[in-house]
Amino acid sequence: MIELVGLTKRYRTRTAVDGLTVTVRPGRVTGFLGPNGSGKTTTMRCVLGLTRPTAGAATVLGVPYAQLPAPMRAVGALVDPRARHPGRTAHAHLLALAQSNGLPRSRVDEVVELVGLAAVADERVRGFSLGMGQRLGIAVALLGDPEVLLFDEPVNGLDPDGIRWVRELVRDLAAEGRTVLVSSHLMSEMQDTADHLVVLGRGRLLADVPMAELLGADAVVRVRTPQTAALAAALQRAGGRVARDPDGTLQVRGLDAEQVGDVAFATGVRLHELTRATTSLEAAYYALTGEDVEYRTGER
Ligand SMILES: Nc1ncnc2c1ncn2[C@@H]1O[C@H](COP(=O)(O)OP(=O)(O)OP(=O)(O)O)[C@@H](O)[C@H]1O
């Protein structure tokens, strides 16, 4: 569990994180979203004791990071994958970390295998591609077999196979009961990975919601019938909000597809189409963050 209470970080001229209160719970993947500069990395750095909050607190498993008796066994993080010695091999990098953190040597081979770097473990990190570097960063995060994991943009630089691998990994880690916080700019990827979302805008909390709730909030059922007026009236009586497209299709909000079908049946109306139009996370995200983008590209 990660708890943020009134977490605030001010730099000289700007407030990167502004009174953030959130609990990131175990057993599910929590997606961490927000436009560039909204404070995600700063928040993660505060959780990891790398940045000192100006006010408020961040705790991991009930204590500030600095008070964890064996930090690597409690928290694993991929925050800055470039932070490593380029002249070392992947294996040597991991071994040095394992030794300085009292972790068994055997764990190095385990994580190397787990992240798919076995074939290149004895090569120098200097020559690693972005994707290999990400895998090594993930290996570091997993080294202490921690209960809490923070991944900042873990799929950055990965090919589609790598992206799928990260998705399955984070889902497995959460299914094992761990706390998993993942930031990403790839909305479709996040939609497939996260169970819950924490969304920031300009350092403030915009949403702390289950994915299903966010996507369901604006769900639309499309329905087409030759008896448009009769169906629209019946759907409104049943509590639906009904809009009519120029081609006669009805867009219904506030009722699910089953309810729309039942109303049509009860009204004796024939249907030619009944579709549940799912909202994409991307659409829901833009609706949420529209006002809070710090850097906006020019109008086109
Ligand atoms: N060391 C620093 N000194 C001054 N300002 C900083 C520092 N670190 C971050 N900031 C500022 O704080 C704000 C939040 O940055 P942060 O990197 O946490 O955002 P982010 O949500 O992770 O962004 P991105 O999606 O681009 O990675 C930004 O305006 C950034 O310029």
Can you put this structure into words, describing what you see?
The structure is a single chain. The chain is an alpha/beta fold and 300 residues long. It has 2 domains: 2-215, Rossmann fold (3-Layer(aba) Sandwich), CATH 3.40.50.300; 220-278, 2-Layer Sandwich (Alpha-Beta Plaits). It is 35% helix and 25% strand. The protein contains 11 helices and 13 strands. Strand 11 (241-244) and strand 12 form a beta hairpin. The structure holds adenosine-5'-triphosphate. Adenosine-5'-triphosphate is lined by residues 11, 14, 16, 34, 36-42.
Key features?
300 residues; alpha/beta; Rossmann fold; Alpha-Beta Plaits; 2 domains; 6-stranded mixed β-sheet; 4-stranded antiparallel β-sheet; 11 helices; elongated; binds adenosine-5'-triphosphate
Q: Supply the number of helical segments.
A: 11
The CATH superfamily of the largest domain bears the name P-loop containing nucleotide triphosphate hydrolases
Spans of at least 5 consecutive residues with low confidence: none
Helix content: 25-40%
Q: Bound small molecules, which ones?
A: adenosine-5'-triphosphate
Secondary-structure arrangement, i.e. CATH architecture of the largest domain? 3-Layer(aba) Sandwich
Oligomeric state, counting identical vs distinct chains:
single chain
The figure for the number of domains is: 2
Q: Find the count of extended strands (DSSP E, 2+ residues).
A: 13
CATH class of the largest domain: Alpha Beta
In short:
Keywords: ATP-binding, Nucleotide-binding, Transport. The chain is α/β, with parallel strands linked by helices and 300 residues long.
